[in-house]
């Protein structure tokens, strides 16, 4: 607009008749700016300290690897309609500079802006201010308001995923997230009670002696033996924090995938009346949380997992075995989250894995290279692609060989893509429990 006034005044030198028109237009423009400034910056009344209000509503903690909902509340206290531009200063870890929202609010109107953030690192995140730029219907000036500076939020392991699995388990809908229905093979040896037969009960559990004692002249009342799952079995998640767990996948490291899966599995184990514990290790053993199922155990597990960080050193399995032998005396289910890329790398640790499997039920969980799998699924169109696919087939074959070799020594395994880790781990736990192995 200012460029237009400059051109108008320049043209007035050639056409003097335009000079009064240019001055009038410029005066009207200055008057409009003064009116716009008065409308924007005039002080509010006593009740409304500011003519515009905004607030960011963010949870006290965010869930790592999940889309966390946030809202920005806007309230127009002006006596006229305004257009606003909202710039939210989100933590630098997100590396986003495009968080700009636009809205139009009538007099005394309120609006809510909803958006989501997906953190990929655990730790503390610092939010800046919510910057609101307000324009009057004239649109000549903007007034900036700032709200909510200095908000610090902790990012914890994926508790949203944990709650999702907990809800689905409570409503018997775990199959919606890939958890299979496991048919129980036989019964637990823990007797619970004798109760009347109801439709759907296993006829093999009929207690004929109890039925004879409680026979009714009007008809036979069948009695069955009711059994309950064996409870209070120790379940430990052993989490490798060595350099092999530093590999990234969709923004998260393999360590974060293992931590999220451990949180979900521990919660499922507690729901199944088992005891859940955590052990972290790398070049030395980190933290050991003994298996328990008291009410505060999940909070302890979450706090332990929140503080874990990847180390860039080689994992010491000898130290792991020594600590497990010293501190975990009762036979337990050990879920070892690690990663092996080659058979030779696994064979170096095999003696310690075999010793762990001798005293406990060991389940080794390691990861499939999804980018390599995508390469192998593509058709080969040139010599270079054929060469890459040949090398890729060798690495994929070694992963399968690791599974076979561990199975020879009675060690359970899961080879999974990172995104399927949680569902596959829960499936395996429920399968082992249904088979009565724990």
TrEMBL record:
It comes from Spirosoma montaniterrae. One of its GO terms (biological process) is cell division. Keywords: Cell cycle, Cell division, Membrane, Transmembrane, Transmembrane helix. Pfam families: DUF58 (PF01882). Residues 193-364 form the DUF58 domain. InterPro entries: DUF58, vWFA_dom_sf. This is Cell division protein FtsB. The chain crosses the membrane at residues 24-41. The keyword Protein transport does not apply. SUPFAM superfamilies: vWA-like. The keyword Membrane applies. It comes from the Bacteria.
């Amino acid at each position: 607009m200012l460029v237009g006034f400059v051109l108008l005044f320049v043209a007035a030198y050639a056409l003097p008749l335009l000079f009064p028109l240019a001055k009038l237009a410029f005066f009207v423009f200055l008057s409009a700016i003064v009116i716009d400034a008065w409308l924007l910056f005039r002080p509010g009344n006593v009740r409304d300290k500011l003519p515009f209000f905004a607030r960011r509503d963010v949870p006290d903690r965010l869930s790592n690897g999940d889309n966390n909902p946030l809202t920005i509340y806007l309230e127009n206290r002006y006596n006229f309609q305004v257009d606003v531009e909202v710039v939210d200063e989100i933590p630098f870890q997100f590396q986003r500079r495009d968080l700009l929202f636009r809205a139009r609010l009538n007099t005394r109107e309120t609006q809510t802006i909803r958006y989501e953030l997906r953190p990929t690192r655990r730790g503390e995140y610092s939010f800046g201010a919510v910057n609101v730029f307000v324009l009057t219907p004239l649109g000549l000036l903007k007034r900036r308001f700032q709200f909510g500076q200095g908000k610090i939020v902790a990012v914890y392991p994926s508790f949203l995923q944990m709650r999702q699995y907990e809800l689905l388990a409570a409503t018997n809908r775990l199959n919606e997230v890939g958890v299979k229905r496991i048919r129980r093979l036989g019964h637990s040896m823990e007797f619970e009670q004798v109760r009347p037969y109801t439709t759907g009960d296993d006829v093999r559990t009929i207690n004929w002696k109890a039925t004879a004692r409680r026979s009714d002249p009007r008809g036979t009342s069948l009695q069955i033996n009711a059994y309950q799952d064996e409870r209070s079995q120790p379940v430990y998640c052993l989490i490798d924090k060595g350099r092999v767990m530093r590999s990234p996948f969709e923004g998260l490291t393999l360590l974060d995938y293992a931590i999220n899966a451990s949180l979900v599995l521990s919660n499922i184990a507690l729901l199944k009346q088992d005891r859940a514990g955590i052990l972290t290790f790398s070049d030395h053993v980190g933290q050991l949380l003994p298996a328990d199922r008291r009410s505060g155990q999940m909070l302890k597990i979450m706090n332990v997992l929140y503080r874990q960080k990847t180390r860039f050193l080689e994992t010491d399995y000898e130290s792991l075995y020594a600590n497990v032998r010293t501190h975990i005396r009762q036979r337990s289910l050990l879920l070892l989250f690690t990663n092996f890329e080659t058979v030779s790398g696994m064979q170096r640790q095999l003696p310690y894995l075999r010793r762990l499997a001798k005293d406990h039920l060991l389940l080794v969980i390691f990861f499939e290279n999804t980018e390599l799998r995508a390469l192998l699924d593509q058709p080969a169109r040139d010599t270079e692609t054929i060469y890459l696919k040949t090398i890729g087939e060798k690495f994929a074959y070694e992963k399968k060989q690791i599974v076979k070799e561990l199975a020879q020594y009675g060690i359970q395994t899961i080879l999974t893509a990172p995104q399927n880790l949680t569902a596959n781990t829960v499936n395996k736990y429920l399968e082992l429990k249904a088979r009565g192995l724990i």
